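ping. complex inputs:
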Amino acid sequence: MPTLFLFGASEGGLFDFDATLPLMAVQVVLLTFILNALFFKPVGKVVEEREDYVNTSRAEAKKKIAEVERLETELKDQLKEARLEAQKVILEAEQDSENLYKEALALATSEANASREKARREIDSQRDEALNQLKSEADNLGDLIIERLLAKK
Amino acid sequence: MGFLPFVFPLAELEVGQHLYWQIGNFRIHGQVFMTSWLLIGALLALVVIGTKKMERDPKGVQNLLEFLWDYIRDLARTQIGEKVYRDWMPFIGTLFLFIFVSNWGGALVPWKLIELPSGELGAPTADINTTVALALLVSLSYFYAGLSNKGLRYFEYYVHPTPIMLPFKIVEDFTKPLSLSFRLFGNILADELVVAVLVFLVPLVLPVPVMFLGLFTSAIQALIFATLAAYYIGEAVEEHH
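pong. complex structure:
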């Protein structure tokens, strides 16, 4: 080793304080301002803007999720209502058709009864007529027989 | 190294030698400024490249810068507190970045390939002037932080739990910069010396794990310095109730 200056050397040494110290301090202070302008401020701005963006996006997403959930329950309610209504409509239609069937059946039955009644009445009246005719013919024949008998005597 | 049969060019040890630059009546250590300017230049180049086109979806260097920014913000926020950490974040961050770049630059760049008339290039933080300058800046900062935040009530801190603490707290104001500067200086210089001595003795394989240990130490020292600086500032601005 050529030289190993340590403590107490007249020139050099490990603890050789000189104008390096204040100059280095000034240099570091300058570096602080330069880095503040070039690094800390711009990067901080970007990072904080992103943090804001993420926070607002998250809040918005939460709002949207809440809205979606609200709409979902609303739609489910609507669906339930619609189903109930449909059932009601089906029930009504069934009842209506049954009613119609019954009405038609009643009408048909009554018509059939009426025409049967009418036919019976016609038969009755024709039978009565025929009976009356027979009776009057029998009466005539009887009268004729009596006349003839009386005339023979 | 006349007593050795071979001279390994990387293994020369020149401790305490400096390349002097004369400026008026003052002398400065040229090798410290040469390396620090190169390393600061590299740091600024990285910053300029990374912030040139910043987007909301970070790409490339912007990712690295944002990671560093986040790391420094967490460090400053946990040590200084939510209220004033923003004012001190650039200072803490600059300390961290400058020390980190200096330490790693000193360890990773093969400076010793460059011949100087006197002294040798190395980590700027291996020079006591640099570390004392940084430590004194920290002292000034925490005094300024305390006084600007609390006015003269800052001095309540010296008698805080009881007035018995007064002498200890005054001594602390001297030991804080002393320990800050010597811790950093000692660690980095020792690391450089250990690597140099090992390379000098066994120029193959053996120094490599020590070099990795040196990188680890360098990073840790940068973190320790920045954390302690932030802690001192946080202590000064803390409200006692």
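Chain A has one helix and no strands.
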